[in-house]
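Continuing from the previous page...

OK, I double-checked the sequence for Ribosome-binding factor A against my notes and this is the correct one:
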Amino acid sequence: MPREFSRSDRVSAQMQREIAEFLRTGIDAPELGMVTVSDVDVSRDLAVAKVFVTFLGARLETRAAVKRLGEFAPQLRQVLGRRMRMRIIPEIRFAYDDSLERGLHMDEVLRSLNKDGDL
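Thanks. Re-ran it with the corrected sequence; updated structure tokens here:
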């Protein structure tokens, strides 16, 4: 019977849980506000993990907040190395997840079209 999820999918899910826990308890960076890990995309060869995050109440501009978060990547890899059963922990790259903003923009466009009677 084939597996339902690939290894990279399982690693992504576990990394998402572990990274969220680390960001909640393992860093002291109040300027980032509340950081939410929305997704982790791990490459097929498990060499790179792209961590998508959102910020609530951040005092920094988005790019600066992502850069600041990247400063914690080496420490995070060490923590993941202790918590996960993997020979090699993927390189961690943070990226801002703008899907919520894009969704809100699409909603505004649809509402304006509907209001104008174009829909």
